[in-house]
UniProtKB/TrEMBL annotation:
Organism, as annotated: Chromobacterium amazonense
Full protein name: Uncharacterized protein
Length: 134
């Protein structure tokens, strides 16, 4: 019997393979033969569809390595920016307080820090942070 594992993106045959992945699905022999014939053309590549079934995609529809790296770098930069501006909680004042960290908030905190390092620092530090509930 033939199987397809979406996690391994591979076919398995119970007469050849002693270990079949737990996510493997039984594949109809006709479907298996059709997929193998399509892959023989080398113009397609095996993948799993949204339901974990085997499917083929045209090789030219796949991202190049450079395009995939660019997309990943862009995704990471967006996630990093989101984390930086998400704000933070601190219990330094005795109870949890939320502090915004939008660009304006970061500039305000930098100014307060710089002011605190002067010869005559202020006696209080009113810091504005964007209001966001905890």
């Amino acid at each position: 019997m033939k199987y397809f594992s979406p996690s391994k993106n591979a076919f398995f045959d119970d007469t050849l393979n002693t270990s079949i992945p737990t996510d493997a699905k039984t594949i109809d022999p006709t479907v298996y033969a059709n997929l193998m014939a399509q892959m023989a053309s080398q113009a397609v590549e095996l993948t799993a569809d949204g339901n974990g079934n085997p499917a083929v995609v045209a090789r030219d529809s796949l991202l190049s390595l450079a395009a995939a790296q660019q997309q990943r770098a862009s995704d990471l930069a967006a996630a990093c920016q989101s984390a930086i501006t998400a704000g933070f909680k601190s219990s330094a004042l005795g109870q949890p307080n939320y502090y915004g960290s939008l660009q304006t908030d970061q500039i305000n905190l930098q100014r307060m820090f710089a002011t605190s390092q002067t010869v005559r620092p202020p006696s209080s530090y009113p810091i504005y942070c964007s209001p966001t509930p905890m």
